[in-house]
């Protein structure tokens, strides 16, 4: 095939008669659930064993009579096993009212076709089609009393069969319950992961589309302050926010002033983005700080500064965050921040506005 040859596509139309031909061929072949495993034809006068297998009444009767007359029992059991290999490959499904046939018993063979079955009439109800074999067996062996308190029908004498059927039914239900628990646990994990991913996505969207107006809420402030007072090299950094969706990215740093431990230092740092090659360097703009007084808005501390293109802090960052910041080394007294209404519910609020010029 020439890969360079131009190919054209067009709408395909199925030739006339193919659909009807397939339906005609398939309609002459019985479905497996309506097929007798002995004669391989449509079921005639069907009977069903309590294990859920169906036969023509004449076929199973003739086969059992033939088997009983054979002298070599090993051949009988081999034939039974071969037949049951065919039967087990089919999924039994109850769709019509079938008689339960009684077959001979032989405990040495281990073949379930040779177990004794009771002669029971299965209720002619289409709902039986959705009931599996063990459940149908248990329903046939015992009938619950009606709502008027009438006595239930006397249970059959084959108690061991009833107990076995009920036990197997309980095992199946427990297995299904376990599988449902696993499915629910997996769904719960997936939902939790989706919720976390959704929260992160929303947070990232707010940071990218804040247009350079970022409000930093420092929670657990007292605990963080105590840690910084014990170690003056510990610093708090805000998440990175953008001046525009594809613009400059900044973060804010709050720490104890290295020059005077009674003061907070407050700086901004440029951060690397995927669009740095498309931006103009160095950064030129106006930077404003506002430490919000949450008890008296008039006492909010506001400061504004202009960038300096000669400083390394405003050059294109070569690392994830520029090591040089720009701001105030003695921005506010720690005692004033703690006592004068800047901290409420253990939260300090700092608003930062960065505009390009």
Automatic annotation (TrEMBL):
GO biological process, one term: regulation of canonical NF-kappaB signal transduction
Pfam families named among the record's database cross-references: TRAF-mep_MATH (PF21355), zf-C3HC4_2 (PF13923)
SMART domains in the cross-refs: RING
Localization, UniProt: Cytoplasm
Top-rank taxon: Eukaryota
PROSITE patterns recorded: MATH, ZF_RING_1, ZF_RING_2
A molecular function (GO) term: ubiquitin protein ligase activity
Sequence ranges assigned to domain RING-type in this UniProt record: 36-68
Main location: cytoplasm
Gene Ontology, cellular component aspect: cytoplasm
Keyword field: Cytoplasm, Metal-binding, Receptor, Zinc, Zinc-finger
Signal peptide: none
Domain MATH: 211-354
Name of this chain's protein: TNF receptor-associated factor 6
Species in which this protein is naturally found: Papilio machaon
Taxonomic classification: Eukaryota, Metazoa, Ecdysozoa, Arthropoda, Hexapoda
């Amino acid at each position: 095939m020439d890969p360079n040859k131009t190919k054209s596509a067009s709408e395909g139309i199925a030739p006339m008669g193919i659909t009807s031909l397939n339906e005609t061929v398939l309609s002459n072949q019985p479905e497996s659930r309506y097929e007798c495993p002995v004669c391989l034809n449509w079921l005639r006068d069907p009977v069903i064993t309590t294990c859920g297998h169906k036969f023509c009444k004449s076929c199973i009767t003739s086969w059992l009579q033939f088997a009983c007359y054979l002298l070599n029992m090993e051949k009988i059991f081999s034939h039974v096993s071969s037949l049951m290999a065919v039967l087990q490959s089919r999924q039994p499904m109850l769709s019509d009212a079938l008689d339960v046939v009684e077959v001979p018993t032989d405990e040495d063979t281990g073949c379930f076709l040779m177990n004794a079955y009771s002669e029971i009439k299965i209720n002619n109800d289409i709902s039986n089609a959705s009931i599996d074999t063990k459940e149908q067996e248990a329903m046939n062996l015992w009938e619950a009393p009606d709502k008027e308190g009438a006595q239930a029908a006397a249970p059959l004498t084959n108690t061991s069969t009833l107990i076995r059927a009920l036990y197997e039914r309980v095992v199946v239900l427990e297995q299904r319950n376990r599988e449902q628990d696993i499915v629910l646990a997996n769904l719960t994990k997936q939902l939790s992961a989706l919720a976390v991913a959704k929260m992160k996505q929303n947070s990232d969207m707010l940071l990218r589309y804040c247009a350079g107006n970022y409000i930093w809420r420092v929670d657990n402030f007292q605990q963080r302050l105590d840690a910084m007072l014990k170690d003056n090299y510990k610093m708090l950094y805000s998440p990175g926010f953008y001046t525009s969706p594809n613009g400059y990215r900044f973060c804010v740093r709050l720490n104890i002033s290295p020059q005077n431990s009674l003061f907070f230092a407050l700086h901004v740092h440029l951060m690397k983005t995927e669009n740095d090659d498309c931006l103009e360097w160095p950064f030129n703009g106006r930077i404003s700080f506002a430490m919000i007084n949450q008890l008296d808005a008039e006492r909010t501390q506001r400061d504004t500064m202009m960038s300096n293109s000669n400083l390394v802090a405003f050059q294109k960052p070569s690392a994830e965050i520029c090591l040089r910041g720009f701001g105030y080394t003695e921005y506010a007294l720690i005692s004033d921040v703690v006592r004068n209404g800047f901290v409420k519910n253990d939260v300090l609020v700092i608003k930062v506005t960065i505009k390009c010029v």
